[in-house]
Amino acid sequence: MDLIGQERCEHVFQGVLLLSLAGAFGAGWIRESISLAYMVLGAGVAVGFVICTPNWRVFNRNPLTFATSSELAADMAAGSTGKGAASGKAAGGKAGASR
Amino acid sequence: MSVRSYLSEQWSRFRETKFRNLAMQVASLGLLLSGALIMYKSCMLITNSESPIVVVLSGSMEPAIHRGDLLLLSNRYSTPLVSGDIVVYKLPGRDVPIVHRIIKVHEEHDTAEVDILTKGDNNLPDDRELYGDRKWLSRDMVVGRAFAFLPRAGMLTILMNDYPKLKFALLGGLSLLALVAGD
Amino acid sequence: MHSAGTRASILSSYAIGGVFLLAIAIAVAPTLYAPRLPDVSVRVNSLAFLRYLPAEECDQAYIALDINADLRPLFHTNTKHVYAYVTAAYANSTTHVRNEVVVWDRMISSREAADVKVAKGWVKYSLKDWGVGLRGAPVRLWLRWSLMPRIGGLAYGGIEGEPYTMPVEYTQ
């Protein structure tokens, strides 16, 4: 999963969890059954896990582009800000991946 | 990753840990434990009860309360103890607290002291037999009145009570995990 | 969040949070609205005897009650049981200012069983005083309930029934 995919994945899971919480509470309230409420919540969580745990292609649409060493050398020589930001992003990505 | 390779990795990490790191982890484990203790003692202060959380060990209050259920107690009352309240009491000379329901309250004229009689919902007779040579419970034997209920939350305590070895296995395992685990 | 393992662990902690959140919602929600009070009437139908019980050195009265209590409004998602009970409350000027004795009780486990109708039902527990203070005592009857939740706070309530005055002399 790439960085943007990771963020999206987390948001998707939060959304699924909140929706299933609301559904679980509503169903439990109407049918007056706590076990039903927890079954609904469990089903929602299971769906969330299926969506978010495997490394689906949807979450890999923004691969990192790493700066080449020659580009980095040019950066350092010029001290330009635009490319500095790009290389910083790459470095951040690396740090994230190596943890 | 197999369990074995995971364990061997953890072990090698543990062996590489410097003394300073080890000391840090022992300290943070201690912090965690003392934090829990402070929480519990604060609960005691707030509720004015010597044991604000009790695990029900007997089935004498079934079907309302089962073995392993958790009760939160308070010993600070906005209203006086009345019949029907679920209370926890400790008899002098007996360690195990008892969770039962009040069925009689008699408040004395001059001293405002109360004589209390309790009974378990699932028991036929009242608790006079348990009291021994006394006829009534007095106010100071009541540890607290139940105000909230968590089902089955004390099951682990019940299991540890029934199998004492489990307690040590669990404690040892948890401490080891806290020491070995990276973060 | 980069590997499936860390994702699974982070998502599990979210899920556990959800489990607790649902429990809190279920425990708190019924307390946010005031339920309709049950329709209740309770009175003493008849008195079998009022006597001195030498074995326990106290007064004892044996009464029959008429109970008409529709406790169905107390049942909601978070109600496990309702313990319904009748207390006799009285004061006597000599020894005790507040006396409360449970004379009848019933554990109600479902809404279907919550419409309690008892006609001339002899009490489960005879009314025994602490000492000898029952003669002529004005007794206030209460039908009370103790709501046992599936999870969360315990709730108590009660409605007063018709008062009753004990005979001035022992009947036996």
Automatic annotation (TrEMBL), chain A:
The chain crosses the membrane at residues 12-30, 36-56. GO terms for biological process: protein targeting to ER; signal peptide processing. Keywords: Endoplasmic reticulum, Membrane, Transmembrane, Transmembrane helix. It is a multi-pass membrane protein. Pfam families: SPC12 (PF06645). It is found in: Endoplasmic reticulum membrane. Residues 90-99 have a biased composition (Gly residues). InterPro entries: Spc1/SPCS1. Residues 79-89 have a biased composition (Low complexity). One of its GO terms (cellular component) is signal peptidase complex. Residues 79-99 are annotated as: Disordered. Its main location: endoplasmic reticulum. Belongs to the SPCS1 family. Component of the signal peptidase complex (SPC) which catalyzes the cleavage of N-terminal signal sequences from nascent proteins as they are translocated into the lumen of the endoplasmic reticulum. Dispensable for SPC enzymatic activity. PANTHER family: MICROSOMAL SIGNAL PEPTIDASE 12 KDA SUBUNIT, SIGNAL PEPTIDASE COMPLEX SUBUNIT 1. This is Signal peptidase complex subunit 1. It comes from Porphyra umbilicalis (Purple laver).
From TrEMBL, chain B:
It catalyses: Cleavage of hydrophobic, N-terminal signal or leader sequences from secreted and periplasmic proteins. It holds the Pfam family Peptidase_S24. The lineage of its organism: Eukaryota, Rhodophyta, Bangiophyceae, Bangiales, Bangiaceae. GO terms for biological process: signal peptide processing. It comes from Porphyra umbilicalis. It is found in: Endoplasmic reticulum membrane. The chain crosses the membrane at residues 21-40. Its main location: endoplasmic reticulum. SUPFAM superfamilies: LexA/Signal peptidase (SSF51306). It is a single-pass type II membrane protein. Residues 38-106 form the Peptidase S24/S26A/S26B/S26C domain. This is Signal peptidase complex catalytic subunit SEC11. It comes from the Eukaryota. Its EC number is 3.4.21.89. GO terms for cellular component: signal peptidase complex.
Automatic annotation (TrEMBL), chain C:
Pfam families: SPC22. This is Signal peptidase complex subunit 3. It comes from the Eukaryota. One of its GO terms (cellular component) is signal peptidase complex. It is a single-pass type II membrane protein. The chain crosses the membrane at residues 12-33. GO terms for biological process: protein targeting to ER; signal peptide processing. InterPro entries: SPC3 (IPR007653). Its main location: endoplasmic reticulum. It is found in: Endoplasmic reticulum membrane. Keywords: Endoplasmic reticulum, Membrane, Signal-anchor, Transmembrane, Transmembrane helix. Belongs to the SPCS3 family.
